[in-house]
Amino acid sequence: MTETVGSTATPERGRPEDDAETSGESTRRRDHKRSRKGKKGERKGVFARLARFYRQIVAELRKVVWPTRNELSTYTSVVIVFVVIIMAVVYGLDYGFSKLSFQVFG
């Protein structure tokens, strides 16, 4: 299997620019990010995090393309018909296997 440089399928490799230069600016950036990550004082409070989470939920729900009433009724009827067909298939198999088992075992 060949390895693609910079592919998202190989996250353990990291970013390509990290491979090219192992010292210098990229190392300083990584060290700076690690040192900021562990500070307790910069962490937001519980209510601030909950408020941000709620704002993110609302923002994502605004991106959703909601179906119209006609589309929703069409999708619902398709699902109901599909479930009825699958129920009939399972009922038929169950009935057939029960008759077969009564024939075999008496």
The rounded distance between the terminal residues' Cα atoms is 58 Å
Please count the helical segments: 4
The percent range for strand residues is under 5%
The largest sheet, given as strand count, sense and whether it forms a barrel, is: none
Unreliable residue stretches: none
Structural class: mainly alpha
Total domain count = 2
What is the percent of helical residues? Answer: 55-70%
What is the C-alpha radius of gyration, as a whole number of Å? 29 Å
Counted beta strands: 0
Mean pLDDT across the residues is 79
Shape: elongated
Order of helices and strands: HHHH
Q: Would you spell out the secondary-structure blueprint of this structure?
A:
Blueprint: H1 16-20, H2 25-37, H3 46-63, H4 69-105
Which terms summarize this structure?
106 residues, mainly alpha
Q: How would you sum up this structure, described in words?
A:
The protein has 106 residues and is mostly helical. The protein folds into two domains: 13-64, no CATH class; 68-106. It is 69% helix and 0% strand. The chain is built from four helices and no strands. The protein has helices at residues 16-20, 25-37, 46-63, 69-105. The two termini are 58 Å apart.
In short:
The chain is mainly α.
